[in-house]
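Q: What residues go here?
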């Protein structure tokens, strides 16, 4: 059995809780990790976009990762978000990062620079040659303004054995299906979009790295398991149970929406670091109504 299988199912891109003074709330972070694991999710992703990693200092990042490793206590795999638009900086970070307790990295395609496909390939080639743990590619054109094509993904998957998966958040099901059709056998395709997880997995994807599972780990991870097992009707019930909340979570930005729900659940406060701000009153009210009615 491939070691890649540990990343099948539901991974959770965990938020970074903050206190009112904007310091990291490690107590709530521990509570969140336990909530997610108790809910049945297969692994966690720390320092991703949802974790507001770009607003954390180097020391804070180390402390957050250390807390997550301690809280997880080897119960599930841990994926570390480690990406950016300066290839050399990432390579240097790979050489100095302590990977004890880390099972893989999630590395987002470069933002802002807008490299062409040859540049994206060379970027990941440099990372693959320097990285001591498996790599999950991350394609999210809505944030990077640069799409990694199916052809580039497939070439990377074939050329580098330590590139084991892609988190696909292009929203383009045709592109996702092309990757699924032509990828190497053990290479995983992971949904990066909560709303599209069911159709992607039904098309042959292997799971999801989720935002909503921060708050609803039990139902969302069960939905994922059901559709992976081919139980379409059971998966559909859970999918549609969550769709209204999922829509509102992203109505006024991520992770503002999910943090608003986590505050309603008493897991952590809805504090964010600038330039992100809390959801507007319309979205807050909608989330409160939906959470109250959720059964």
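A:
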């Amino acid at each position: 059995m491939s070691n890649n299988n540990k990343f099948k199912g539901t991974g959770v891109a965990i938020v970074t809780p903050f206190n009112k003074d904007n310091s990291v709330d490690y107590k709530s972070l521990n509570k969140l990790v336990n909530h997610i694991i108790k809910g049945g999710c297969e692994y966690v992703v720390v320092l991703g976009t949802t974790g507001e990693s770009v607003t954390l200092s180097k020391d804070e990042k180390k402390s957050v990762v250390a807390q997550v490793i301690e809280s997880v206590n080897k119960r599930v795999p841990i994926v570390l978000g480690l990406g950016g638009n300066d290839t050399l900086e990432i390579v240097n970070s790979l050489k100095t990062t302590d990977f004890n307790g880390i099972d893989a990295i999630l590395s987002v395609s470069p933002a802002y620079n807008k490299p062409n496909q040859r540049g994206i390939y060379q970027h990941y080639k440099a990372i693959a040659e320097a990285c001591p743990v498996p790599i999950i590619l991350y394609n999210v054109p809505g944030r990077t303004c640069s799409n990694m094509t199916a052809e580039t993904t497939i070439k990377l998957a074939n050329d580098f054995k330590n590139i084991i998966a892609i988190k696909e958040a292009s929203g383009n099901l045709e592109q996702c299906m092309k990757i699924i059709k032509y990828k190497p056998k053990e290479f995983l395709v992971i949904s990066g979009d909560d709303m599209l997880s069911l159709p992607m997995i039904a098309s042959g994807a292997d799971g999801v790295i989720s935002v909503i599972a921060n708050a609803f780990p039990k139902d969302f991870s069960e939905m994922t398991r059901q559709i992976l097992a081919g139980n379409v009707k059971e998966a559909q019930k859970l999918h549609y149970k969550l769709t209204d909340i999922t829509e509102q979570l992203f109505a006024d930005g991520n992770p503002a929406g999910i943090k608003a729900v986590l505050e309603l659940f008493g897991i952590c406060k809805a504090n964010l670091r600038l330039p992100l701000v809390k959801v507007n009153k319309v979205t807050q009210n909608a989330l409160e109504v939906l959470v109250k009615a959720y059964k």
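A: Context that may help when evaluating the design: The chain has one domain: 3-229. The CA atoms of residues 15 and 86 lie 24 Å apart.
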